[in-house]
Amino acid sequence: MTKTFSQELGTQRISKLLIKQAVPASIGILVMSLNVLVDTIFVGNWIGSTAIAAINVVLPVSFFIAALGMAIGIGGSSIISRALGANDHVKALNTFGNQITLTLVVTLSMVAVGLLFVDSIIDSFGGKGAIFEPAKIYYKIVLYGIPLLALCMMSNTVIRAEGKPKFAMYAMMIPSVSNLIMDYIFINLLDFGMAGAAWATTLSYVLCLGFIIWFFASNISELKINLAHLGLNFSIVKEISSLGFVTLARQAVVSITYLFMNNILFDLGGETSVTSYAIAGRMLMFAMFPVLGVTQGFLPIAGFNYGAGNYQRVRETLNIAIKYAAVLATLVFIALMIFPETIIRVFTTDADVIQQAPNNMRWVFAATPIIAWQLIGAAYFQAIGKARPALLLTLTRQGFFFIPLILILPKFFGEFGVWISFPISDVLATVVTAYFLNREVKKHLIPKNI
Fold first, then answer.
1. How far apart are CA 266 and CA 176, in angstroms?
2. In degrees rounded to 5, what are phi and psi of residue 309?
């Protein structure tokens, strides 16, 4: 009886199952993205365009620490999905308990370091000039809530690994909706400025964690852990770390990218260019929600069936996920190519930003139709527990191509060199990922004779 939901991952028709998994994930990501988007609109219109740049400085630091939780979550959830597929419920419980302990120990340590070096960290990530003070205010308040966010992000992947995507969606929606409501109260009504934006964000994490604790304490969840499960097991920690390092490395590279981009753009175009990048970054989070939803929906299905040895279903899941993600990515591309200026005007009334940002955004999204291969390909290796290729493919786009390009091309093309680095790195990363994914499928996903 307790296996009903997770066992559906191995029995339902793939197309139906992927939609069932991807739609709630997409909605959850959409609401979270809308939260970031509307939060940016509120901050831009009620505080000023410099405040948008200030939040963009803080995001890579806070997201990196929170991503420790996501890394532990995705690494452990890959184990849980395969354990449930192999009917090893004990390993699933021990893995979840280890995830909780690891998340608390690691994120609290990182927050302590982050608070100890506030000024130098903000300056390093581009918090210069008029951006520094509002960034510092936002940073210090938000950082206190980051361990809670890390626990939420970790637990969300576990809920999805259980085969309960709707509850994972609810967990993503709660902080998003509550943050917007508190934004309105703290920023607009009470005029708390950057501090209000920060407290709205932090308190929304508290509400999210409350919901997640309720979920795992209720009869809905299959994973009923006790204190014995919280003790760290070396073999489980090692497996979580090897798989989770893929996600952590990706977020680390994202944070490094923000560091380079904010500093390079500030030197080339000042606050206006940093704000332009901040808006494009928000749109990357928002516009890609359906593609990311398919990727999230793909992970537990692929992991469960791989653990069960049903390679035909894994192959079918991979093919359908890439097709769905490619179609959705193309629709996103068309919309952003047609309406970039309209989108920018929603964020700000700053004439300089409105003039500069639309063309920049077009370059950022120029290769969007082909990114399905990147996302699904890297996710596949993570789902089946192959950490090394998952890591390398995850780092390909930003680590191996994008960062070198933004360091080299501006020397020849100025600020334009920064923006054309986006599509060039997307194309190169897609070619590499497609090659390795195709080789893996032909070599290992050989359907068993029935």
1. 30
2. 75, 15
Predicted confidence band at 450 (pLDDT cuts at 50, 70, 90)? very low
CA 18 to chain centre: 19
CA–CA–CA angle 149, 126, 69 (5° rounding): 20
Is residue 275 within 8 Å of residue 52, measured between CB atoms?
Answer: yes
Under a CB-based contact definition with an 8 Å cutoff, are residues 78 and 383 in contact? yes
Q: Counting every residue, how long is the chain?
A: 450
Q: What's the CA gap between 343 and 357, in Å, rounded? A: 10
The tokens for 270 are 């000042």
Q: DSSP 3-state assignment of 440?
A: helix
Confidence band of 5 (pLDDT split at 50, 70, 90): low
Cβ distance 420 to 413 under 8 Å?
A: yes
Using a cut of 0.85, tell me whether the model's pTM lies above it.
Answer: no
The SS3 assignment for 116 reads helix
Calpha distance 184→423 (Å, rounded)? 36
Exposed, middle or buried, 60 (CB in 10 Å: 0-12/13-18/19+)?
buried
Backbone Cα Rg of the chain = 21
The reported pLDDT for the residue numbered 7 is 65
Give yes or no for residue 92 having a pLDDT over 60: yes
The model's pLDDT over 22-77, given as tens digits with 9 standing for 90+, comes to 787 777 677 766 666 677 777 777 787 777 777 777 777 777 777 778 788 888 88
For the record, the structure tokens of 375 come out as 């996302």
Task: Answer yes or no: are the C-beta atoms of 194 and 142 closer than 8 Å.
Answer: no
- Residues 181 and 200: their CA atoms lie apart, in Å, by 8
The arithmetic mean of pLDDT across residues 398-420, rounded, is 91
Q: Pick from 141, 155, 163, 138: which is nearest to 210 by CA?
A: 155
Would you say 347 and 41 are in contact if contact means Cβ atoms under 8 Å apart?
Answer: yes
